[in-house]
Amino acid sequence: MTTESNPYRVLGLTVEASPAQIARAYRRLLHAHHPDTRTTQPATDPVADEELQRILAAYALLRDPARRAAYDRAAAEDPGPAPDRSPAQAPRPPASGPRRVRVVVRRGTPRPAIAFSLRIGPLRRHR
């Protein structure tokens, strides 16, 4: 059992996690801790139910971009322990100067638009 209040740690993520990574971690943990699917504890285990409530609360906070941004701002102002940030995913300083952007140009004849002709008429009963 974890008594973690940091939603990133509850879901096992870093601060830079994308919305897709948040949803994937939530679904994985929900499947593991849901009373209908968990195999390690009985379905009425109060400790497992508390863990499930923490997972639901963490996902509810992180899935909404406005609430997540407010939490991140409050966590940045709080002098307490910082959310997990792995060294490989440390924030990079903003790059100055020109940046290279890959642009793909497809040349050739454009494909014709597909036109469907669908006619719906009166219904007939066949005997």
Q: Could you give a quick summary of the protein structure above?
A:
Helix content is 40%, strand content 0%.
How are the elements arranged and paired?
Elements: H1 7-11, H2 19-33, H3 46-63, H4 65-77
How would you characterize this protein structure?
This protein has 127 residues and is mainly α. The chain is built from four helices and no strands. It has helices at residues 7-11, 19-33, 46-63, 65-77. Helix 2 (19-33) runs antiparallel to helix 3. The longest helix has 18 residues, at 46-63. The termini are far apart.
Keywords:
single chain, about 130 residues, mainly alpha, 4 helices, about 0% strand, flat
Helix coverage percent: 40-55%
Write down how many β-strands occur, each being a DSSP E stretch of 2 or more residues: 0
Mean pLDDT: 78
The major pleated sheet works out as: none
Overall radius of gyration: 25 Å
Structural class: mainly alpha
The poorly predicted ranges are none
Compressed to H and E, one letter per element, the order equals HHHH
Strand composition percent:
under 5%
How many DSSP H or I helices?
4
